[in-house]
Write a structure and sequence with these properties.
The structure is a homodimer of 417-residue chains. Chain A is α/β, with parallel strands linked by helices. Chain A is built from 13 helices and 18 strands. In chain A, α6 runs parallel beside α8 and α7 packs antiparallel against α8. At the A-B interface, α1, α2, α3 and α4 of A face α1, α2, α3 and α4 of B.
Chain lengths: 417, 417
């Protein structure tokens, strides 16, 4: 017997038939003798509808009321799934965030989970053999007694946090892909599904554009060491052997991964823009003069490259921002020209960031050097480089993205046999 | 300054534009200096959609889960109206049943309100000048912590109960008609809107087919002496003088009505069927033998007429049931024929019940006799008669319904000048 959390997103519960299908997935695990807590999102489209209504009434809606409105979507799905489970003779009941409760911060619309009381869930398991169907995405700020929501993709975070609270053996994330791949299979036909990936690697992959899970939920899983299994919700429940090993990717502590590869995945993002500030005065405080105004304007600066000054007086400074913020960043910097002191701004929006991720890099030297060589052989120019312990990222011309990803995927031995 | 409850039904909050319109109604009262609690239903159609989903999953759905699903509709409207109010600079917040709380019985799907804590509403009025926007129709069973709903039309009951809890001066029911009429204006063109009607009279009118308000909510208003004002939600908010007397009908204690008319209204219902059991044995226990099985089959028996036996051994017994239950009632009685002991059953579904209501009847003799005479003059045959202190009902052939209603409406001086 294991204790499981099963999470189903909006497309998996989009209509009554799919909710019935989810019930079969749950029943399979219950029949195999497991204790199960299910976390559900709103039926797909519902959250958007509710958000649109709030925005129609006021672009500056009260986030407390927004949360009261939007949290209703998950409430509906939880109740419906409980009914669907009872219909197939699985004992089940729904739980809303405030009923457990799932205590959160007061940051309405993007609240953080502070504390989950899992006692009632476990009591349901042990006293009544009952499946807990929990509304994801929502919680309560206990001091004010008001509903909160966790922000987009919050149901993943709910699922992981509940798994931590009830000490689940595993948190299964049912999604529209059957696992985490070494890179985007649409770009590299030879991309492979990984059986396992370490939390740190998944975190880098997720931040860098792989859209399988929310970054927040992976951080949470890492901190609480919750084993997360990403699998497909489109597999037919009756085709799955509950005692076998279903297709999917386990996100876990690196110690669980016997043979760690040097490189586990390649991520990329085309939504990047490059800004180079030419002949900036090379003196203390100039970085603050540049990045301060950008931060105030809520522009997320990513790769920053500053060369050592050649003339001792001025230097060039290059960084990237999301492509959507490119014009705004230019405006901010132009306005601050006199305070910063620079010659001119160059920029480009036809750039892409390619990242190579692998925990094994920590103990292997020269991993990045191999990449520089392989890309140079293909005539791909590298505009900027940043590195961390377990990844490095390269800024290149975006036309070369697919070529670069394929080249690196082969180079590090990730191609499917 | 007065303290008001304003209740808006599903059609009044059917879309974002109508919710904005409701906000203007509320703002008008707030600007006039009143303390306001608003009770809202779900957007029209939403509750039906949620109910349908539950029923699709299982005709025998768990009523606890049904309540969790269905209560979400009012939650959405309450949050949206709070946003709409803030947009027009009215301080407001939403309250769900469990937040106040509104404590109810455990009868999921048709729970009774047991206790409302109005402290937070009043605190909002007095400390923050805040409008309370309360989700109608829902509550919480505090022992189990589960959501409950009050059954169809429950928002009227919520509104009256909240008015009682916060000692409101008046409970305004905004609906699609502009008040209570002496009879159905579609049948009698000369029907008049009443300025005032006593609780007891309204109770009779509501039970007898006038669909303005739920019977339960009027009972509650009578017990707690909550003055209820029925008015139209289609009046333009800007056309209403908050200090004037708007069109509508006040339902109140009879002592508030200076000059009580003998008859205040005529109600009628065509959804009736008549059953006559011929030559029933006239002995103790026979009524139980007839009505026991009907009650067990959940068939609501209304008018019962039993003549004094002529031969001392058998008698005829006539009663009415809802037309929809006619066949079922016949089947039940046929099955019990040997236990009951009777000759045969006659029946008719082409019958209608016409009722004349008025508190003044208590002190006026001969009111019913006038009706018998007037109907006889029109050739309308009376099949059965029942009377109570403040009303009498006549069973007639349904083809004569409109004629009878118009005749009685004129007879008792209710025609508009």
């Amino acid at each position: 017997m294991a204790r499981l959390v099963m999470k189903f997103g909006g497309t998996s519960v989009a209509d009554i038939d799919r909710i019935r299908n989810v019930a079969q997935h749950v029943k399979r695990e219950v029949d195999a003798g497991h204790q199960v807590a299910v976390v559900v999102s709103a039926m797909s489209g519902k959250t958007n509808e509710l958000v649109r209504w709030c925005a129609e009434l006021s672009p500056l809606y009260d986030p407390q009321e927004y949360d009261a409105v939007v949290a209703s979507g998950e409430q509906v799905t939880a109740g419906l799934l409980a009914i669907a489970l009872q219909t197939v003779e699985v004992t089940a009941r729904s739980w809303q965030g405030w009923q457990l409760p799932i205590g959160t911060s007061n940051a309405h619309g993007s609240a953080r989970i502070l504390d989950i009381n899992g006692d009632e869930i476990v009591k349901g398991f042990e006293d009544r053999g009952e499946v807990a169907v929990i509304a994801g995405f929502q919680g309560i700020h206990t001091e004010t007694g008001r509903l909160t929501t966790l922000g987009r993709g919050g149901s993943d975070t709910s699922a992981v946090a509940i798994a931590a609270a009830i000490k689940a053996d595993r948190c299964d994330i049912y999604t529209d892909v059957d696992g985490v791949y070494t890179t985007d299979p649409r770009v590299v036909g030879k991309a492979q599904r990984m059986d396992k990936i370490a939390f740190e690697e998944m975190l880098e992959l997720a931040s860098l554009g792989a859209k399988v899970m929310q970054v927040r939920s992976i951080e949470l899983a890492m901190v609480h060491n919750v084993r997360v299994f990403v699998r497909s919700s489109f597999d037919k429940p009756e085709d799955i052997d509950p005692h076998g090993t279903p297709p999917g990717t386990l996100i876990c502590d690196e110690t669980e991964i016997m043979e760690q590869q040097v490189v586990t995945g390649i991520a990329f993002s085309k939504d990047e823009a490059q800004i180079s500030i030419r002949r900036v005065q090379d003196k203390p405080g100039v970085a603050a003069a540049i990045f301060g105004p950008l931060a105030e304007s809520n522009i997320n600066v990513d790769m920053i490259v500053q060369n050592v000054s050649a003339d001792g007086a001025t230097t060039d400074l290059t960084f990237t921002v999301p492509a959507a913020d490119y014009q705004r960043a230019n405006d901010v910097l132009t306005k601050s020209k006199s305070q910063i002191g620079y010659d001119r701004i160059d920029g480009a929006t036809d750039v892409a960031k390619v990242s190579v991720i692998g925990i094994g890099m920590r103990s292997h030297a020269g991993v990045a050097a191999q990449a520089f060589k392989a890309l140079a052989e293909r005539g791909i120019n590298i505009r900027a480089i940043t590195t961390s312990e377990i990844k490095f990222s390269l800024l290149i011309e975006s036309a070369y993205t697919e070529l670069a990803v394929r080249t690196l995927h082969s180079l590090y031995g990730l191609d499917k046999a």
